[in-house]
Amino acid sequence: MYTIQQLQTIIAEKIQKEADRIGATEPLNLYHPVSYTLNMGGKRLRPVMALLAYNMFRDDIEKAFPAALAIEIFHNFTLLHDDIMDCADMRRGQPVVHKKFSENAAILSGDAMSILAYQYILQTELPDIRQVTQLFSQTAIEICEGQQYDMDFETRMDVTIGEYLEMIRLKTAVLLACSLKAGALAAGADQPVADSLYEFGINLGMAFQLQDDLLDVFADEEKFGKTIGGDITTNKKTFLLLKALELAKEKTKQQLLGWITAKRFDISEKIDAVRKIYSELNIQQITQNEIEAFYKAAMKNLDELAVPQDRKNGLVSLSEMMMKRDH
Amino acid sequence: MYTIQQLQTIIAEKIQKEADRIGATEPLNLYHPVSYTLNMGGKRLRPVMALLAYNMFRDDIEKAFPAALAIEIFHNFTLLHDDIMDCADMRRGQPVVHKKFSENAAILSGDAMSILAYQYILQTELPDIRQVTQLFSQTAIEICEGQQYDMDFETRMDVTIGEYLEMIRLKTAVLLACSLKAGALAAGADQPVADSLYEFGINLGMAFQLQDDLLDVFADEEKFGKTIGGDITTNKKTFLLLKALELAKEKTKQQLLGWITAKRFDISEKIDAVRKIYSELNIQQITQNEIEAFYKAAMKNLDELAVPQDRKNGLVSLSEMMMKRDH
User: Fold this and answer.
1) Is the ipTM of this complex over 0.90?
2) Is position B196 within any domain?
3) Domain check: are A134 and A160 in the same one?
4) Chain B partners of A29 at a C-beta cutoff of 8 Å?
5) Domain that holds residue A107
6) How far is A261 from chain B (nearest CA, A)?
7) Which of A15, A143, A207, B254 sees the fewest Cβ atoms within 10 Å?
């Protein structure tokens, strides 16, 4: 079996090759922003997951390239359009497409990426591509739904923890789950095995996103590699904030709501104040417990998977790697 | 066989039913703009073409609904995103989505429509859906390319007639051709017949778009049902303008370029002046000849189609209907 690092190198090279090919296609104003987006980099987590899942069953991993590329291109398409909707300026240290090119370029090149993603998934070598394409399509629409809930929550003050968990399931977890299942389907895995891998991906994805929320508040800024407190500054209704609002007594709750509704504030003062309230309410530990519950559920899915134990090593390593991002 | 009017009624009802179902799905902020867009109306030309093509071979036309709906939803998605890019305010007498809802709603709901279109095409009842889905996907990416060329041409002064014809082939003709071929494939038609129907659709689509350009300049405003001269006002590099620039002697060419580059002008004065130049250069007749060449090619495709003559009547009627829009 390939190691995660080997798969990362292999798929990074493949993505760059495809990006260069796409970027040289006419009309250049359509395809250049596509290759720019794909070349922005990243850990290539989702295509690696697709290759890892494929590699549990077969060694000719190039057969999983179409699914892996489809998923990475679709993921980058959602980032591209999300950046327009969020009025973001930069991503991974580089100007976003709607700043570097134009908003129209970002809209249309994004549309093209969504279609290109389908073109890759349709290249999967299977006797019947209906199931893998429907899985991909169902995931794609769920990601749109997750993004809509995320935007809806910005202006709602009555978001429940259940609603939040459903939002991150749609916005983040389903694509990780889809990556694994698509890889398994491409390898011709049995339906129950493919379905269990999907469940594993959902639980791992939930743990991953909740940890992302936690790190945004409590991580060591240097090790985490991005600015801390962004979610607090923008009043994002994460698990941490919703749990704090649920647990806080009246006076603390009013303090917290005061910071959320404040029109003018000093950013670092706000971050410190909210973080202090979180500490008083033991939010860090409570979130950590929630993360561990999802992580344990994922490990249980993996234990129960009807695949030889030594074939699961890649996914175990990946899970550990994903959950240790601040070390 | 069904008449065109019957098919229009059947598909209009089906679209409304689907639009209502989609519009009642959570999150409403995502799906309400989708149903709003689908309920804006229109002649439903593309889904009717899919049903007509299917009906050449089989009578159980409900089997062609998934392909017909996919194509109509995709077409409406392109209108939705084009309206953002063109900064349009109104469509079919109603406010466009980015005005009625918000720009973010227009972006994200459009993305969802593109994915929904794939979900419908994937419901086509065929032993192997790869071909029809690849046809749809290839068409979809070509439409993006057409839109990009159209936007590129706005700032280019060296557009050739060949480039213009290729742009309208991509932006308009391929979706009409895809509608026919998808209907034929859904009915299990032979490959050569499906391919010939595609060619017929391309030629008919070219004639249709060139006539649209012609009517925008020379139609009877009341009968045409929309304002005349829009292409002249916005300096759109249509066949008419490009042919006029090609044929005009130096003095007339400078007059024409003067109008195109003018920053300030009286709209009706500009329309009258450009129309007068077109008349001097016999542009109306030349365009009419071009339209007839494409139309004749379409009729030749239809004649040569290996299908009983009486089964072609629907497509003959549709072609006549499409080419007599100002009468």
Assistant:
1) yes
2) yes
3) yes
4) 148, 151-152
5) 1-189
6) 23
7) B254
